[in-house]
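Assess this today:

___
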Amino acid sequence: MKKGWLILQILQLMVFAGVSVHLFVRTVDGSGAVQTPAIRLTSFVVWAAFYLGLLAIEWGIRLLIRRQK
């Protein structure tokens, strides 16, 4: 189980990094709005908050599983 958990965490980190790079590199978003540095930072903060929320849920589940064993 530990190896699978580690692989999942590495894959999630790679997806997070890839999306983060995409958010900072793109010049126009999906609606056609030009990306200014402030908008890029706001997009990144929203993305990071989502990712941290997902990690908190996963670690909470992991702690519950470990406590039951």
